[in-house]
Amino acid sequence: MKTAVEERQLLRRDYVSRFLTEFAISANCLAESTRKELDEWARQVLLIDDQPSANWRAVVLHLAVAVECQLAASLGRVQTLTFFGKKSALGTKVMKLRKATLDSSTEHQLAARGINPAFVRSELADLMSRLAASRNPKIHGSARLENFTTKDANEMRQLAGLILRGCQRRLGTGDCR
User: Fold this and answer.
1) 61-77, pLDDT tens digit by residue?
2) Which stretches of 1-149 are assigned E, i.e. beta strand?
3) Residue of 70, 72, 79 lying closest to 38 (CA atoms)
4) Of 159, 117, 114, 112, which is closest to residue 136 (Cα–Cα)?
5) Helix crossing, 57-75 with 124-140: angle to 10°?
6) CA pair distance 24, 151, nearest whole angstrom
7) Cβ distance 168 to 74 under 8 Å?
8) Where are the domains of the chain?
9) Measured by CB atoms within 10 angstroms of the end CB, which terminus of the chain is less buried, N or C?
10) What is the spatial distance between Cα 130 and Cα 7, in angstroms, rounded to a whole number?
11) Of 65, 46, 96, which Cα lies nearest the Cα of 163?
């Protein structure tokens, strides 16, 4: 017989697994720090399921942190993109990415890590910008913190899924099997 703690762990793993499957993401291709944040994200979602009037703020924040962990782990070691590995606001990273030139060496480094350079060059900045915009006004934009809604959490979920899928290592590259 499973303990209550084991039951909750299984529920979290299942929730994360369904999210990863929906976006064709392999858990083995994500950084350990990303997986930990996704577990905490699932814990927060399940808490809200038990308390429907709760604020989705922690859910949104943990999912954003999971994305930032993956960006740091997957792109922060690439020569031109080391700013992803440094502490700074997501918006700052968007501006730096838009200014960055992905030369052939950078594209080769990305490809060697199993990351599609075209995703980084053409889609990532816009997705990150939307992610930052969906969370920042409610966290930093006013004197009081606003509540996050189910709609905010679902929007963050979609953006995070797309970013994580684009920034995961591909099967057969590096640590990803």
Assistant:
1) 899 999 999 999 999 99
2) none
3) 70
4) 159
5) 140
6) 22
7) yes
8) 4-167
9) N
10) 35
11) 65
